[in-house]
Design a protein that fits this description.
The chain is mainly α. It contains 21 helices and no strands.
Length: 519
Amino acid sequence: MIDSPISDARHGKPLVLAAICMAALVLPLSFTGGAVAIPAIGRDLGGSSVALNWVTNAFMLSFGSLLMAAGALADQFGRKRLFGIGMALFTATSIALSFAPSVLALDILRAVQGIAAAAALASGTAALAQEFEGHARTRAFSMLGTTFGIGLAFGPLIAGMLIESTGWRSIFVTTSVIGLLSLIFGIPRMRETRDPGARGLDWLGTFTFTGALGLLTFGLIQAPASGWDSPLTILPMAFAGFMLAAFVFIERRVAAPMLDLSLFRIPRFLGVQALPIGTCYCYIVLVVLLPLRFIGVEGLSEIDAGWLMLALSAPMLMVPTIAALLSRRVSSGILSGTGFLMAAAGLAWLSRMHVGTAHGDLVLPMLLIGTGAGLPWGLMDALSVSVVPKERAGMASGIFNTARVAGEGVALAIAGVLLATLSQSGLRAFVPRGLPGAVTRTAEAGQRIASGDIGNASELLPEIPRSLLIATYDSAFQSLLHILMVITILSAIVVFAFLGKAGAKAVAVDPTKSLSSAN
């Protein structure tokens, strides 16, 4: 049955769609806004580099690791109920974040906000599939994707405007208002739906998967501060490996697994997993690190940094749609691999733009990166279900989206570690011999430089001129871009090898095979 606009309006479905789209708008705004706000948060609340890194990573980690669990709970207890709980918790947490008295409180609340975001997105997507049918459903999901893209593209600019006009806390006030509007418009008009065949949540799988990601991220973030040989680094990463092994053991034996690991025996499904890896390292990492460079090192205001970031993010509004149209004639694997090569070329170009380069000269390489990343971005959701048997599409989509969002958190942690380690290595050449506390001060200064906090790095090492600190950052960032370029090229090679045949065309995705139906 195809819903008519009159029928939809009579039952309030446009308002339900608006409510879920508002949730889709506020989630990327929370991610990008938090990243842009880090320098301002550091100036206001202080905090170590490790603590400030968790402002972004805590949100991404809890959000990504709990998406599938939230979907299973929505199927079992009701999509409307979980959407209401998720958005209410998200709104309350956003209000609390606007009053956070310390970075530690901010980090804890951001983790809670990520849990709420997972509940809202998984249940909202599933509820949308139940509200609409036929072509109306296709249009609804298209609008949802467009709204998410708008939040991702304009999030840095909106955050910059808010920070410059009323301070960083206003970002969270804004997200709380949007969350409240989503509740007001959506909950009274949304139908309650459940999956009568829902098998419940794989609690052990969820615990071990989330634990493995959390411990791995903690170890990675702690490494530049404590050293790779420190127990604070080694033990969390060792336990992460143990938890991951336990997760695999559990998933192979449980009756209703969180992840069907047998899908990884399908070579083309393995190839699909290279798509989010590539986009993480050529795009998502820059969404977080470039504002830190522009604001902390280049000296731009938050709003100017937001305007400049549009060169990277604006292509995401158009290129995914163009990619979907091109995929009717060209293999999606070829398009995706070509996009990665374009992004790699953009990364190589950007690496030649040193600190102090005219900001207009940064626009073209950033546009090239954004355009290249947009090609696989617009195709990978469809590819994730088109390369597996139809009856397993729901599980494949759930695995892919979990790996995608959780992988973004891990990628951010790895990139941050690399930049901090490269900065520390560069500083050692300038630190005078016999300097008291040289090891500790260099380690902390390297982390400060990596986060764009040149001022505090200069206070830690007043013996080193500020110009040399900036040169150290410049060299480290250039090396990081080269590493990101190599990862992006490797992703392209994998995509060409596994998905490059003519038959690897994306197919239309049934939106009912959403995150929540994976279980």
